[in-house]
Structure formats: structure tokens, C-alpha cells
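Team,

Forwarding the record for the chain on the shared tracking sheet. I've put the sequence and predicted structure together so nobody has to dig through attachments.
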Amino acid sequence: MLKLLRARAGRQPGGLPCHAAAVPAGVPNPGLVNVRLPDGRLGTGERAGPRADGQGPAPATAYGNIASGGLRRRRWYWRVPRWVRWSAGLALVILVFRRAVTWALVTGASGALHLTGVNPHLPHVTIGWPWSSLTAPAAASDVLAGPLVLAKIEGISAPALGTTTFDFMFTRKVSHPVGFLPCWYSATFYAVAKASATVDLNPGPAWWAPAAGHYALTVLSKPAGSTPGQVSVTMTLPAPQLPQTVHDVSVDNTLSRQVSADHSWTYPGLACGAIIKPQFTQPALYAQAQAEAFTQATTLTSVTRPLIAAAEKQAGTIIDGNLITPALSSLGYQVSSFTIRWAAAR
């Protein structure tokens, strides 16, 4: 009977459960106290008034609407190790954004290898987002892709540059007799030069006229849902142009050096040295090396072939990778074949 009465006394008028914790009777009411609830959690409550009989400790009552802290039940996923959760999340992100991740990896690897001097042939990857394939333009089949791409090409204002580096040897000899005495000096140098061949990517409106036959875009299939359409592009460009003047070639002074030297027995006498030394100044040597490099860059096959190949590759990268592919991708098309033909040099 006493237990029943105590249980009823442990209820407040609002029907909220309360629980008591013993507090010594002689201690003044400090306000809030911590109590342990029947389910093992810790809660905060207010101390109730002293017992009417004045015996025993005053109970501290914690109501159901009082915020409780302490021990919390852990969710089921907390039992999974943290590295497993992070790995699963990272794998999901990579799966969703796989095209963007692949583009970033290929671009970063290409840039790193280019800085080290290695130029491997990596696959061409364009950036893409998960929603791009789901939001292909509905009117893509109604847009004339050919004129749009041609307009992009006609907007190009700079040529494509194909650059290559080559080395060579040259000799400079100066002879100026002093009276009946011989006076001459000869030196052989190793030099490193850089030259560029250019491709005119936009020869003008007459070049792209339909009658000229220099541009053709064929739609092989139109976009259907999430499947992109297929197109083939064929175009003709002017042949790469080799350097036109000596100023189109540069010599790297930091890598060039003297290999050997020979001179007359009168050098470096007072008279002979005064005549010879001004002929071997840095500007004089650079001018001769630049002239020799220009000759090799325009006549030597071992130099002209890499120059032309580099220019053709750069032109294809600019036209296909930077213009045609992005423009057609925005219309829901994919380039299945791209061909550049080179017109005969004029």
C-alpha cells in the first residue's frame, strides 16, 4: 500500500513522470540537481519541497519535459568503422562524378609529364557532369550543327604554333693580318635553338565557301534521349608555314657554349687581340648562331619534319578539342571521326 501511495505521489498534475534522488535534509536547496532516470540516463531536475514529516532526505524531481543529457543511444551506423564510412562516401562521389574525375586526372597527369619533358599520347577526355546526359537539348535535332561549328572556326584570330628545339654546331673565324704578321682566331660553338611553324586556322570567308570544299560536317545520327548523336567532320587547312625570318628563331644562350678554339701565334698580342676580340662579342656570336638556326629550320629535314608535325598536332588540338567537340557536345552530339587534310603549300 505504501509503495502504491509513493508511486502516485511521484506523478505531477500534468501526468509527466518524475523521479527522485536523495538530497541530505540539512543542505540548503541549491536549485538544479542531477538525477538518474529509470532507463539509466542522467537528467537535470528541480528539488521538491521537504517532506511533511520532516524525516529523511528531500527528493529531487525530474520531469519528463526537462532536457536530459549524459549517455545517449548510438545509432547503428556508429558501429561501422569510420574509414569504412569515408571510403564508401568517396567511392559514391567518384562514381557519380566519374567523368569529371577522369578529366581532372588525365589533365593533371598531362601537365605533370609536360613539365618533366615527357610528351606521351594520352587519351582525349572532355569534362562532363552527371546531369549533362540527362538534360540534352530537346531541340538539338532542329539545330544546324554544321554552320554553328563553322562560325566557331571563323572566330579564330590566332594561328596554331608548333614548336621544336634542336641543337647544332657553328664555327666563327676572323682573320685580319697586321702588316706582314698573321692575325686570326677561330672558335667552334655548340648552340641550342627553338623554332616554330604556324598553321593559319582561319584563312578567310573565301576559304570556307561551300564551293571550295574545305569543310564538311555530316550528321550520322541524331540525339535520342540520353544517347548523343554522332557526327563526322572533315576539313582542309593550309599547310604549316616554316619560319619566315631569322627573328622567328631564337637561340638559348644558357645552353650554348664554346667547344674549341684556335688562333695564330700572334694572338692575343696587343695589336692582334685589339682587332680580334671585338669580333667575338655576345651580340656578334648570337647573330651568327641565329642565322645558322634559321637556315637549318627551313632547309634541314631533320628539323623541318618535327616542326611541321608539331604544328599539325597543335592545329588539330585547337580545332577539335577546343572548338568542335565542346560546340557539338552542347547540342547533344559526339564527334565520331575528325579528319584534317592539308592543302599544298603555295
